[in-house]
Design brief:
Blueprint: E1 3-8, H1 14-23, E2 31-37, E3 43-49, H2 52-55, H3 58-61, E4 68-74, E5 89-91, E6 97-105, H4 108-117, H5 128-141, H6 150-163, E7 166-174, E8 178-183, E9 192-197, E10 202-207, E11 219-223, E12 228-233, E13 238-242, H7 254-259, E14 265-266, E15 269-270, H8 271-289, E16 297-300, H9 306-316, E17 324-326, H10 339-349, E18 350-352, E19 361-366, H11 373-384, E20 389-394, H12 422-429, E21 433-436, H13 439-447, H14 459-462, H15 473-480, H16 483-494
Parallel strand pairs: 16-19, 19-20, 20-21
Antiparallel strand pairs: 1-4, 1-10, 2-3, 2-4, 5-6, 6-7, 7-8, 8-12, 9-10, 9-11, 12-13, 14-15, 17-18
Helix pairs in contact: 4-5, 5-6, 8-9, 8-13, 10-11
């Protein structure tokens, strides 16, 4: 999962892109980058490994002069970790194109071979984002226009859609021409547009989440539609066109469960309200399965579960307490690359308030259970603090399958629920009782916010993937995502 932002304005945009990236930091902690273009069509860029605040120092910001630009925060999915994978990525022909991508292509290996053998384009990394950049660049170059219009750019996007499978929300800076945004024909990854009035023209922002718009003085205009392309030329003129055949809005449901900020709206669904409804439906399920429950207190595992936990406590008429103190300077353990890092991080990340646990039957609420590593450690901490019983509720259903669309889920074999019953998972993590949200209730919790959405991308729960997959793709991905294989790959790279 990554975060992307692009701004077109009358004045220098680097500071606003920087502030926007800070607000998207939760979407990626591996690397950050930015590229801007000035009135003389000169590019200035900066990207590196690390957090936004570390990548961009004052000496860098003073050189980033331009009135339109794009930025990116990266969390590794396809490809490895390293400075060469930081985005935006750049190709000099045609025009000079910089690209920032959130998502994952499922046919990038095949496309990479095509680029080399048929189109003689060399790739420096195994990143699917570099593949996507070169596919679009090749299609735009085929237009043979020194001064491409929006029509020519949209034609290249249409060709890109036809060739690329998977999930992609994209921002591209075409040097000397403007900013392009487009979204895959299922709208799996989010992308929103904001607008504000400048002195002489409208100014625009396009980003993964709309929560950052207000702080930058923008009002949300709308979401980018599945398959749609938006082009804002360097003078601020706005163009849009549907570039995909048979687009259908099927957003990733895990955005509402975990990834997105609670103050964001994704495809017009309030993440905060969706999580409240998840809590209510989970409470109803507890009442149905165990009407005589003996829960003394509801405690969330911060932060993405707090909204659901609070509403669950209200509906159960049980006290809500915050029993964990979170170290805000530790990254999200879900997106740490290796199991050992995640295991060590849990204790550093959370301190426990013993007085909220001692002698009580505690219901812990989390957004989801992936590997079970964090859940097991937290339950152990609760029992060491004196809890009488520790129950565990997940606001999401059991995660049984790997994700193909931009979330670096582990190999299916490393998912705790992949080959276990609910009772076996409860035993494995040490819970006295485990309750999962049902998939129907999760879908209903989100769909209530926008009834026009008929379907969500839910493959991590069902194993049903909505895009074409190549032969042996799942088997190869299963091997490459195992922690042991990742560690071996990084060791070989270091040597």
């Amino acid at each position: 999962m990554c975060g992307i932002v692009g701004i077109s304005a009358e004045t220098n945009v680097a500071a606003e892109i920087y502030d926007s990236l800070l607000m998207l930091q939760h979407r990626g902690q591996d690397a950050a980058g930015m590229v801007v273009c000035d009135s003389d069509d000169k590019l200035q860029s900066r990207k590196s490994m690390g957090y936004v605040r570390d990548v961009f120092q004052q000496r860098h910001m003073s050189k980033l002069i331009g009135n339109y630009g794009i930025g990116h925060v990266r969390y590794p999915t396809a490809g490895g970790a390293g400075k060469e994978f930081a985005q935006p990525m750049y190709v000099n022909s045609p025009y000079g194109i910089s690209l920032a991508h959130n998502g994952n292509l499922t046919n990038s290996t095949e496309l990479g071979k095509q680029l080399f053998h048929a189109e003689m384009r060399h790739l420096n990394t195994d990143s699917d984002s570099e593949v996507l950049l070169n596919i679009f660049a090749h299609e735009l170059g085929k237009q043979r226009e020194i001064y491409p219009s929006a029509k020519h750019i949209f034609r290249a996007v249409t060709k890109t859609h036809r060739r690329c499978d998977g999930a992609y929300a994209v921002l591209a800076l075409i040097t000397g021409h403007g900013i392009l945004a487009f979204r895959d024909n299922n709208g799996i990854r989010p992308l929103s547009i904001g607008i504000r009035q400048g002195k002489t023209r409208d100014e625009y922002i396009i980003a993964s989440e709309d929560a950052l718009f207000e702080s930058q003085g923008f009002k949300k205009l709308r979401d980018v539609e599945p398959g749609e392309a938006i082009f804002i030329d360097k003078k601020g003129n706005f163009f849009s066109e549907q570039c995909a055949e048979m687009p259908q809005k099927r957003p990733c449901i895990f955005e509402y469960v975990y990834f997105s900020r609670p103050d964001s709206k994704i495809d017009e669904i309030s993440v905060y309200k969706a999580r409240m409804r998840m809590g209510s439906r989970l409470a109803n399920l507890i009442k149905k399965q165990n009407p005589n429950h003996d829960i003394d207190v509801v405690i969330p595992i911060p932060d993405s579960s707090t909204t659901a936990a609070l509403q669950l406590a209200v509906d159960l008429n049980v006290p809500y307490r915050e029993g964990f103190v979170k170290n805000r300077y530790i990254g999200r353990t879900f997106i740490m690359p290796y199991q050992e890092e995640r295991r060590k991080s849990v204790r550093r990340k959370l301190n426990i308030l013993d007085l909220e646990f001692e002698g009580k039957n505690v219901l812990l609420v989390d957004d989801s259970i992936v590997r079970g590593t964090t859940s097991k450690k937290i339950i152990q901490m609760a029992k060491e603090a004196g809890a009488n019983k520790v129950y565990f509720a997940s606001a999401a259903p059991a995660i049984k399958y790997q994700n193909l669309y931009g979330i670096d889920m582990p190999a299916t074999s490393e998912l705790i629920a992949s080959n276990r019953t609910d009772e076996q998972v409860a035993k494995e993590i040490g819970a006295d009782w485990l309750i999962y949200q049902t998939l129907d209730d999760l879908i209903a919790s989100c769909k209530e916010g926008n009834p026009e959405i008929k379907e969500f991308e839910t493959s991590i729960f069902t194993g049903e993937y909505i895009t074409p997959l190549g032969e042996n793709y799942l088997q190869e991905l299963e091997i490459s995502r195992q922690d042991e294989v990742k560690a071996q790959r990084e060791k070989a790279k270091a040597n």
